[in-house]
Amino acid sequence: MRFGTLLVCIPLLALFGQSPEDKLKQLNIQLPTPSKPVANYVKAVRTGNLLFLSGHGACERTPETTGKIGKDHTTAHGYKAAREVGVCLLATLKSELGDLRKVRRIVKVLGMVNATPEFTEQPQVINGFSDLMVEVFGDRGRHARSAVGMGSLPGNISVEIEMVVEVAEKP
């Protein structure tokens, strides 16, 4: 009898996990409207069950999301910028899929950091993105990743990230 009572008390979310949208609400994150491409390309291409998202910078260019890491900004600022880029990628992902529950897995990420030649903490910067994906998707957000330094990025953005996502037809 006691075991049955315990099962009734376990919240359904604990059994099935939160949806990515619920997790975003809990994190106090509102997804912006995705921006239009700035050149002759598309934001995403789907082939089979893979969705390839083009490189994204932060949704809004501000002094905090532009500039060179190691000169204009610290690693901590870069981490925040990478997290902002993650929000923009999630906005594009939701726009493409309609429902973030269709994400089976974040597969591969390329994180590019606009950095000085002597800067070596690119992985710590891109952790801002990676940590957000795990917060939103749990283990499905863990991914293979490259984090590299660049001499410059378009528009002097601090961080650019592209990703490959495995998707399902239905949530």
List the keywords:
171 residues; 5 strands; alpha+beta; 35% helix; 5-stranded mixed beta sheet; 60s Ribosomal Protein L30, Chain: A
Mean pLDDT: 90
User: What is the domain tally?
Assistant: 1
Spatial order of the strands in the main sheet? 1-2-5-3-4
Q: Percentage of helical residues?
A: 25-40%
Low-confidence stretches are 1-15
Write the topology of this structure.
Elements lengths: L1 H8 L2 H5 L3 H7 L17 E4 L2 E7 L18 H23 L5 E12 L7 H16 L6 E7 L8 E9 L4
Parallel strand pairs: 3-4
Antiparallel strand pairs: 1-2, 2-5, 3-5
Write up this protein.
With 171 residues, the protein is α+β, with helices and mostly antiparallel strands. It has one domain: 60s Ribosomal Protein L30, Chain: A. It has five helices and five strands, in the order αααββαβαββ. Strands 1-2-5-3-4 form a five-stranded mixed sheet, with helices on one face. α5 links the parallel β3 and β4. The longest helix is centred in the middle third of the chain and has 23 residues. It is globular and about 45 Å long. The N terminus is likely disordered.
Entry summary:
The protein contains five helices and five strands. By secondary structure, it is of the alpha+beta class. The protein has a five-stranded mixed beta sheet, with helices on one face.
